[in-house]
Description:
This protein is of the alpha+beta class. The chain is 56% helix and 21% strand.
Amino acid sequence: MKQKLVAWFSARNARERMMIMLMGFALLWVVVYYGLWQPLQTAIDNGKTAINRARETQTWMQTQALQHDLRVRRTLAANPDQALRESLKASKLAPTQLSVQGQKTTLTLEPVALATLWQWYVSLNRASGIQLESITLTPLAKNDGALKVEMTLFWSKSV
């Protein structure tokens, strides 16, 4: 096969050989351009678009977290239990029950106003990263606006 192709190419005159070589080079260039260059460029452009979209999404999520006062997702305090106790003391909240089990704390507060509870939790979360796992609010009949609060807080290890 190769010898037939060489014989066919040799049988052509110099002008035809030059034209065949130029057409072969042009065909090779077209194959490289459309077979390699264009797909690579498209993949690069798609990658850049995906990165920009991810950056925009991250910026939007951070903006939304700030606007909606979302809680912190990592523990900031070196000793979360101590941070919790200091926060309760600073907010003048005295839990009737407080038990710490590993990385969880269960506490009961009564009586407490909802606004006071909310302010305490937001400041606690921002300062230490302690998060709310569950909460039960029970209105107290003897005090209007006062609640009995049973809550479980947790934290993860600092990174």
